[in-house]
């Protein structure tokens, strides 16, 4: 069922809110071959990253952020995963927002390249 702008705003908003963590479900899924499934090797890297974050930072909640898998604390994105295939770049990256409070001194890394 396609949502249109003629339908009430609350119904559209509710559907959109239910779809937010869908990208993380696609990272973890293994059997699907839908158009939105993250391709290998980004999917296996995302699965390992998901397991690592859930083990060491269980307070973070998975969500999507600008179409990328991300984790939030208090409804603010702390870290995100950019898969290489979506952005047609050489490496997948794990990035941190300013809400992560990683600042130490005058300079600090905010994004790390991740190779499978």
Features:
Aspartate Aminotransferase, domain 1, 116 residues, 5 strands, alpha+beta, five-stranded antiparallel β-sheet
Characterize this entry briefly.
The chain is built from four helices and five strands; from the N terminus they run αααβββαββ. By secondary structure, it is an alpha+beta fold.
Report on this model:
The protein is of the alpha+beta class and 116 residues long. The chain has a single domain, classed as Aspartate Aminotransferase, domain 1 (Alpha-Beta Complex), CATH 3.90.1150. The protein has four helices and five strands. The chain has a five-stranded antiparallel β-sheet with strand order 1-2-3-4-5. A hairpin with a 2-residue loop joins strand 2 and strand 3.
List the helices and strands and how they pair.
Layout: H1 9-19, H2 22-28, H3 42-56, E1 61-65, E2 68-73, E3 76-82, H4 84-87, E4 92-96, E5 111-114
Antiparallel strand pairs: 1-2, 2-3, 3-4, 4-5
Total strands? 5
CATH-assigned fold name:
Aspartate Aminotransferase, domain 1
**What percentage of amino acids are in beta strands?**
15-25%
List SSEs in N-to-C order. Answer: HHHEEEHEE
Average predicted confidence as pLDDT: 76
Q: Can you name the CATH architecture? A: Alpha-Beta Complex
Low-confidence sequence ranges: 3-20
Number of helices: 4
Shape label:
globular
Taking the sheet with the most strands, its summary is: 5 strands, antiparallel
First-to-last CA distance: 37 Å
Approximately how much helix is present in the residues? 25-40%
The CATH class turns out to be Alpha Beta
With strands numbered from the N-terminus, the spatial order across the biggest sheet is: 1-2-3-4-5
Structural class: alpha+beta
CA-atom Rg in angstroms: 16 Å
Work out the count of structural domains: 1
């Amino acid at each position: 069922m396609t949502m249109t702008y003629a339908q009430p705003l609350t119904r559209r908003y509710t559907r959109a809110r239910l779809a937010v963590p869908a990208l993380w479900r696609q990272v973890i899924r293994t059997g699907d071959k839908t158009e939105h499934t993250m391709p290998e090797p980004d999917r296996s890297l995302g699965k390992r990253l998901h397991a690592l974050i859930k083990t060491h930072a269980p307070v973070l909640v998975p969500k999507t952020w600008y179409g990328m898998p991300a984790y939030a604390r208090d409804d603010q994105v702390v870290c995100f995963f950019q898969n290489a295939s979506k952005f047609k770049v050489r490496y997948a990256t794990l990035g941190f927002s300013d809400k992560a409070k990683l600042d130490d001194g005058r300079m600090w890394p905010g994004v790390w390249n991740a190779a499978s």
